[in-house]
Amino acid sequence: MLERRYPKHEYRGFLGLFKRNEYVIIASAAIFFGSLFAGYLLSPLIDHFMSEALRSFKDSISKGVIQLNTYSIFLNNIKIAFSLYGFGLSFGLFTFLMLAYNGIFIGYVASQYNLGDFIIFTVPHGIFEISGIIIAGAAGFRLASTLIHIIMDIFKIKRYVPIKEQLGDILDYNYYEFIDSLKLFLIAAILILIAAFIEANFTLTWGNYIRGIL
């Protein structure tokens, strides 16, 4: 008999979702913020590589590939979130690398501008956007753990028990873990949508107002 990892009585509530997944959320946040600080502090060392990425990003905006409206901003960021989640199928390796890259890129961008202005113009939407990216990364790690647990359970299959019955048990015992990964991704998508709306409609006004006061 396989061990049920997500007992039904524990599978309740919004807080329960975060409690069960606190380790993957903490890991995702640590990777992102660690990479962000590394990108900021080590910007002179990575300038040769990251300056081209920043230039390409600016070109995408100037050429209208990324427009400063809610739909375009959301579409760009949800692609990142979906990649972070889908890369969980690589056992989390590419989720880790993509999280690190995004953190490094944001840290590098911050180093290229006045830090005060960067914070002022980033905070309104950044709180939601960065939270969404971190949770999307956590969803990817949870998807990776689901895959790993399924593979581990397959290796526990017993010869004297019908394989069909055992495979059914494996899917059943890992079902709730997979559902948690989907729920985390959905929360990430909602946060990214909120961030896109704020960035498109309020960030510039807010930033100019605060900078005018200071």
Summarize the structure in words.
- By secondary structure, the protein is mainly α.
- The protein is 81% helix and 0% strand.
- It has one domain.
- It has helices spanning 14-20, 22-41, 43-62, 70-86, 93-111, 115-154, 163-201, 203-213.
- Helix 3 (43-62) crosses helix 5, helix 4 packs parallel to helix 6 and helix 6 packs antiparallel against helix 7.
- The protein is elongated, with a radius of gyration of 20 Å.
- 30% of the residues are buried.
Order of helices and strands: HHHHHHHH
End-to-end C-alpha gap: 65 Å
Number of strands: 0
Supply the number of structural domains.
1
Radius of gyration: 20 Å
Taken as a percent bin, the fraction of beta residues is under 5%
The helicity comes to: over 70%
The whole-number mean of residue pLDDT values reads 87
**Global shape:** elongated
Q: Tally the helices: what do you get?
A: 8
Q: Which structural category fits the helices and strands?
A: mainly alpha
- pLDDT < 50 stretches: none
Task: Give a quick account of the main beta sheet: strands, pairing sense, barrel closure.
Answer: none
What characteristics describe this protein?
single chain, mainly alpha, 214 residues
